[in-house]
Structure formats: structure tokens, C-alpha cells
Amino acid sequence: MENKYYYISYEKEKVDSIKLIKKIVESGWVDSNMVIINCSPDYSSRLSQLVNHKISYLNDNELFEVIDLPMPYPIMSQIWDSIERKYVMFENYLYDWVRKYIQPDTKYLFIDSGTLRGKNFTKVYQGVKDRIGRDDFKFASLYLQSDSIFTPDYYVETFNKAIHGGLLFEWENVNNPNWDY
Fold first, then answer.
1. Which residues contact 11 (CB under 8 A, 6 or more apart)?
2. Residue 41 maps to which CATH number?
3. Where does the chain have alpha helices with state H?
4. How far is Cα 43 from Cα 37, in angstroms, rounded to an integer?
5. Interior CA angle at 54 toward 99 and 57, to 5°?
6. Is 162 contained in some domain?
7. 148 occurs within a structural domain
8. What's the pLDDT tens digit per position in 93-141?
9. DSSP codes joined into one string, 15-61
10. Is residue 1 scored above 80 in pLDDT?
11. Are the C-beta atoms of residues 108 and 121 closer than 8 Å to each other?
């Protein structure tokens, strides 16, 4: 059986990234005391970089600090810890990551290119909400899968996996075995 994909071309990703940035800016939430969290850096770095540069005027034309937060693939519950040089359970890694990076009196914008199942963002939400107030962190994604258990604060488009297929960006490896399609 051939996999069906909701294919995102480079041009669509670029246009939708600008739409997402506009939503973030128009919310009035961003200020110079914000840090960008690049969730799933292997998938979201381009989006995080674009957001950072396009909104830098809200920070006296200086780039915002960016912190990477690796997230597991859909078929995994662990991530590669590059400091420890081994795989670790995501929940354990996240607990330590939150203690290390999430500080009171700072805002955090968590960016991921897509919110699919929503499990990773749900875990991040649970880990962060006990450390700082809800007004101090937001979530942003280009695309939201319609059956996701988590809805980001900012997103551009919802898609239905059953109808459109799984999310696939033009730069992705279509044969990646870590997707569960």
C-alpha cells in the first residue's frame, strides 16, 4: 500500500511561515523578554530562524535567544541526548531541560513545524506550566493535524490525515522509517 501525504512545497511553507509570523505579531504577546524554543530542531529550524529574523524588530533589531528542544519521532519515546551521548527517555530529558532553561520572568515561544498527534507539545505544556505562568509561554506551528490532542496558540492551517495524508515537507526523506504511516 502506498502512503498518502499532505505535501508541503517550499513555496507553500514560505507563504504559510509569513502567515504564522503575522499571527504571532498581531497577538501583541511578543516583547524583548522572549526566548524562542526550537522544538524538533531537525524539522523546525528553518521556521524558527525565519520567525526570529522577521520579528527581531520587536527586540531592537536584535535576534531573540533560541534554545533547541529535541523531540522524539512518533514511533519513539526517547531522544538522543547529545551531551550524554546516549538515548534517554523524553520525559526524563524534558524534566531536566525545563529545570535548566525555563526561568520565571521570561516568555517562551515554542515553535514546531507541525503539531501532529500533539503528544510532545502536551508533555512540554505539562512540564512548563508548573514552572511559569500560562501567560508566559505560547506554542506555534504551521500545520495542525485535525485529530491532535493539543492545539497550539498560533497555527496557519488544519489538515485531516485520513483525507489529506500525513504531513510531508518537500525537504523530507519520504522513506524515513521513523514515521508510522
1. none
2. 3.40.50.2020
3. 10-26, 41-55, 90-101, 119-129, 161-164
4. 13
5. 85
6. yes
7. yes
8. 999 999 999 999 999 999 999 999 999 999 999 999 999 999 999 999 9
9. HHHHHHHHHHHHTT---TTEEEEEESHHHHHHHHHHHHHHHGGGGTT
10. no
11. no
Give, in order, the Cα–Cα distances in Å from 6 to each of 31, 84, 88, 152, 153: 34, 36, 31, 19, 22
All three cell numbers of 114, joined, read: 507541525
Strand partners, 107: 34
119 within some domain: yes
Number of structural domains (the chain) is 1
- What are the backbone angles phi and psi of residue 46, rounded to the nearest 5°? -60, -45
Joined grid coordinates for residue 174 = 519520504
Beta bridge partners of 65: 35
Whether residue 85 contacts residue 56, with contact meaning beta carbons closer than 8 Å, is answered with no
Neighbours of 143 (CB within 10 A): 25
